[in-house]
Amino acid sequence: MHDITLIQGILLVVLAIIVGLDAWLEGLFIFRPIIVSTLTGIILGDVTLGLVCGGLTELAFAGLTPAGGTQPPNPVLAGIMTPVLAYTAGVDEKTAIGLALPFSFLMQYILLFYYSSFSVFMVKADKYAKEANIKAFSRLNILMLAIVAATNGIVVFLCAYVAQSPMRHLVESMPEWLTHGFGVAGGILPAVGFALLLRVMMKKELIPFLIVGFVFASFIPYSNLLPVAVIGAAFAMYEYFNNQKNKTLAPAAPSTSSEGEDYSDGI
Amino acid sequence: MTESKRVLSKKDITKLAFRSTLLQSSFNYERMQAGGWTWSMLPFLKKIHKDDDKKLSESMEDNMEFINTHPNLVGFLMGLLLSLEENKEDRNLIKGLKVALFAPLAGIGDAIFWFTLLPIVAGISASFAIQGSLIGPLIFLAVYIGVFALRVVWTHMGYDLGTSAVEKIKTSSQAISKSATILGSTVIGGLIAAYVHIEVLSTVKINKDHSVNLQADFFDKIFPSILPLGFTLLMFYFLKKKKASPVLLIAVTFIFAILMSALGVL
Questions:
Q1: Which residue of chain A has the CA closest to B185?
Q2: Whole-angstrom Cα distance, residue A171 to residue B43?
Q3: Is B28 helix (H, G, I), strand (E, B) or coil?
Q4: Do both A116 and A231 map to the same domain?
Q5: Cα–Cα distance for residue pair A206/A219, rounded to 1 Å
Q6: What range does the domain containing A241 cover?
Q7: Where are the transmembrane segments (chain B) (predicted)?
Q8: Mean pLDDT, chain B, integer
Q9: Are residues A149 and A242 in the same domain?
């Protein structure tokens, strides 16, 4: 049983900000529990504890990937809170993994909320893009990164230093429908993005290809869209070769050029 | 002639590889990586279009469209498309290629990095760490620094591929951009089925032994993914015909999702 000093608390906040940003960007992968727990162990002055917690947590989290768009329990909070709980509560490492899970869920919910609500910033981004306003566009991106960084710092400060048990109660009292609702929203929101895409590209000549791609992907739910792209490539080749053939048969035919016009503001 | 068009140096492309780390800066469910994708390339787009704000704004607007690809491999796509942009290729060609390539690249990246590399490296390094050995996290770190460094390789590869293809593209640019549009449309159809998830949880009770699960027994029997398609077309209708603002649609969708979850429908 140990207490965490203020200095250690602050160092954990710095760690959380750095690895939290890395987790958001999926950059250097220093956000994985094996790295985060080790560094947490160093901050707490017990490297071995950090290493053991890191190894165990990493194994527990290796199968939980964000691939395919689902957000797994947050690895940063798991990486920090597992050694912190083992250190402060004096429980063994395996028990600490379970105790750290609510904190991991808490961060997962916050990020899910951001993933949905940051959609609103895209309207601003569109506006700056239209104005070719590089400065404002960069500032907007930095703002979102800052929100993520600050959130990681604050949550870790609250969970690890200020109020461990109240935070756990908070997570445990969150209603199921709310947390599930975030997930549901995440599943539906891409529809708005695709609708925007369709608004720019939808030409009636292109509808057949859209239908084929959709039907193919609905009936052959494969882990990636490469097969759909290959089918699309087949259509594209067909179109291209026909086009070349027509060109050699009737050079500069007026029909080809007007047909080309139709695509001028396609996707 | 073509040589003079080149404004990006080898150093710029290396810089682009590092900047590709910003891909997910403004990640959100509506446009996914579009904001960070545009931001990563912004200094180079500016270098290409210089003071031509109209061209720059066109390019930025195109890049703000939905994209979701793999962070480790994205440099390839950025390099490829920037080489076309640098050559002032047809916008539809650039957009069509982007839409066609990002999703397959994401699938390949997920398969390599999340499903193969991570379990292997995590397994090996965790076995060291559990015994209290620092070698564990060090192996992990070394592997991922290597993976990060490969971004430079992918990015140059994409850019070089683009520059060598540019000559060929030029001779029949209209036909190619039309073909790219077709390829893009096919993939968008697939994207709707793959990325939009709506699953109805409700069951309708017929009698005390029988109940119909709306998703499995009704919607999936009519057509799988019919709800995602329907919802996407509904959003499209509101955008196009009703000129609804995307923010409103996002807010309504979000509230709708929470409400349906509370009611136990979704």
A1: A210
A2: 42
A3: strand
A4: no
A5: 21
A6: 202-262
A7: 99-122, 134-154, 175-198, 218-239, 246-265
A8: 88
A9: no
Would you put residue A153 in left (φ > 0), alpha (ψ -120 to 50) or beta?
alpha
pLDDT-derived band at A1 (thresholds 50, 70, 90) equals low
Domain count, chain A: 2
> Which phi and psi angles does B197 have, rounded to 5°?
-120, 120
pLDDT digits (tens, 9 = 90+) for A21-73: 999 999 999 999 999 999 999 999 999 999 999 998 988 777 666 655 556 78
Mean per-residue pLDDT of chain A: 84
Element (H, E) at B213: strand B211-213
Q: What is the mean pLDDT of residues B161-189?
A: 78
From A190, which residue of chain B is nearest by alpha-carbon distance? B30
Report the candidate in B16, B77, B31, B263 with the shortest Cα–Cα distance to residue A196.
B31
Pair (A97, A67) in one structural domain: yes
Give yes or no for A162 touching B (CB within 8 A). Answer: no
Find where tokens 């529990």 sit.
Answer: A33
Indicate which of B22, B24, B27, B29 best probes the interface with A, i.e. most A CBs within 10 Å of its own CB: B29
- Residue predicted with more confidence, A97 or A155: A155
Question: What does the pLDDT read at residue B217?
Answer: 78
> Is A194–B232 a contact, with Cβ atoms under 8 angstroms apart?
yes
How far off is chain A from B9, nearest CA to CA, in Å?
21
